[in-house]
Specification:
The protein is 49% helix and 20% strand. With 123 residues, it is of the alpha+beta class. Strand 1 and strand 2 form a beta hairpin. The radius of gyration is 14 Å and the shape is globular.
Length: 123
């Protein structure tokens, strides 16, 4: 039995999709994962492509209830921005903190991204 508190009632289908996504991460996701995995950042345990309710978030730290989303260029489209806002509102309604970075931020300034994440871990 999965710890439902960590997954917020995610369905078996969401878990199957998350498994596929873990095998097909974007280059930016891979780069950030390399910096987060193994509790490398402040000892915080992050999960990648983590099921939460009806969503799969890019990264999640349950201890701090912190969701990290990476956005590619598709997230600049108006309809995608609206979907992202709705998704973020639903995650926040679950009591989660959501922070977003662009893929370019990860690629061009990973240290700044990690510093920002670390600041959220200290709040």
């Amino acid at each position: 039995m999965r710890d439902n508190e960590m997954f917020y009632g995610a369905s078996a289908e969401i878990f199957r999709t998350a498994e596929v996504l873990r095998k097909n991460m974007t280059p930016a996701e891979v780069e950030l994962w390399e910096a987060l995995k193994g509790n490398k950042l402040n000892g915080a345990k992050f999960r990648r492509q983590h099921p939460i309710s009806q969503f799969i978030v890019d990264f999640y730290c349950h201890k701090y209830r912190l969701v990290i989303e990476l956005d590619g260029s598709v997230h600049n489209l108006e309809d995608q921005k609206e979907r992202d806002q709705g998704r973020e509102a639903m995650l926040k309604d679950l009591g989660l903190i959501v922070i977003r970075f662009s893929n370019m931020e990860v690629k061009n300034n990973l240290n700044k991204v990690l510093t920002t994440i670390s600041e959220y871990l200290h709040k």
